[in-house]
Amino acid sequence: RKLAAKLSEQRAELREANRRMASQSTTTQALEHAPTLRAAAPTILQSLFDAIGWDLLALWWDTGADRTLECVGLVCAEEPALAELASATRAARFERSVGLAGHVWSNERPMWVEDVREQRNSSCPRAPIAARAGIASVLGVPVRVGGVVHGVIEMQSRLEQPLDEEVLKLVD
Questions:
Q1: What are the distances in angstroms from CA 62 to CA 10, 101, 106?
Q2: Helix (H) or strand (E) holding 26
Q3: pLDDT tens-digit profile of 69-121?
């Protein structure tokens, strides 16, 4: 029984590793073939979504002119509870240090919050909507081009997600 349980656990770990490797390959191909990151965003986000299983992923990008971040891509689980959050995310713009994406953009390093329910505050404009959607964990990762942070990948999950170095490696 112990051997069967161990083999089952190893098979699950192998499936997860294969999903993550496929995501890395898909991301690389999308970046090689798309004329811009914005054009590659839907493929990249869908690949990450499939690999890590979080509920909402968004790519925020520096607008340049007014120095705000805007959502240029979004993938979301088909759940009615997430519809309002997805809509608010698509419509939002953030300055530096405002919201998760703005904080990551400003600090230029990843931010993983295992239980965001404990940290809801006024600097996160979508916090009430995320609370209604049942969001428990969030992760923001800076997107660098030529060493400069131009955007942020934001992930949100209704499950508490403990810090996972493999996920950080995949999205960094």
A1: 41, 11, 11
A2: helix 2-33
A3: 999 999 999 999 999 999 999 999 999 989 999 999 999 999 999 998 877 66
11 φ, ψ (degrees, to nearest 5): -65, -40
Tokens 């939002």 -> residue: 92
Count of H helices and E strands in the chain?
6, 6
Does residue 61 contact residue 50 with C-beta atoms inside 8 Å?
Answer: no
Do 163 and 171 meet the contact criterion of CB atoms below 8 Å apart? no
List, for residues 110-159, the tens digit of each pLDDT value.
999 999 887 766 568 888 899 999 999 999 999 988 899 999 999 999 99
Distance from C-alpha of 88 to C-alpha of 159, rounded to nearest angstrom: 20
List helix spans (H) across 34-171. 37-52, 83-91, 99-107, 127-133, 165-171
> Under a CB-based contact definition with an 8 Å cutoff, are residues 59 and 45 in contact?
yes
| Size (the chain), residues | 172
